[in-house]
């Protein structure tokens, strides 16, 4: 890791925003850039853990999604929806995972237009190994004090809900 900076660049940006007459939006700018920087930090930790497995986080997510299904297979369109990514991203991930022997494409049994992504035994084993390593090295210690995690999850869930990311239809959700 590089040495820490002698000042918080986001706090400095906030000061500059205010000095340039944008003080009324400086807090919002700091919130957005702070979340984006936190995402970069977390993603770097995750990618470092997954690299020895030859996986990116996107490929790991797809393997894990398939692992969690009853049959170990999903239509590509459903995988795209559940991962909340563009179908092209799923196609690219499947291409790489298929080359590595971790998934295979199979015809959908009842919809000739659809293709299933099916997890291989090797893919299932790798998903489990990657999860165990992530659980130990990242998820058990996410870099946030335990007493703040629930608050953070509630704040982010509110933002995601308000952005249309999910709608529980009035049913209570965890956060």
Characterise this structure:
This protein has 175 residues and is mostly helical. Helices cover 62% and strands 7% of the residues. The protein contains seven helices and three strands; from the N terminus they run αααβααββαα. The protein has a three-stranded antiparallel sheet with strand order 1-3-2. A hairpin with a 7-residue loop joins strand 2 and strand 3. Helix 3 packs across helix 6. It starts with 8 loop residues before the first helix and ends in a 13-residue tail after the last helix. The mean pLDDT is 95.
Brief descriptors of the model:
175 residues, mainly alpha, three-stranded antiparallel β-sheet, 62% helix, globular
Helix and strand topology:
Layout: H1 9-19, H2 23-50, H3 57-68, E1 73-75, H4 76-83, H5 87-99, E2 103-107, E3 115-119, H6 121-139, H7 146-162
Antiparallel strand pairs: 1-3, 2-3
Helix pairs in contact: 1-2, 2-6, 3-6, 4-5
Largest sheet: 3 strands, antiparallel
Major β-sheet strand ordering = 1-3-2
DSSP helical segment count = 7
Task: Indicate the percent of residues in helices.
Answer: 55-70%
- The outline comes out as globular
Structural class: mainly alpha
Terminal CA distance reads 33 Å
How much beta, percentage-wise? 5-15%
The H-and-E topology, N to C, reads as HHHEHHEEHH
Mean pLDDT: 95
- What's the total count of β strands? 3
Gyration radius (Cα, Å) is 20 Å
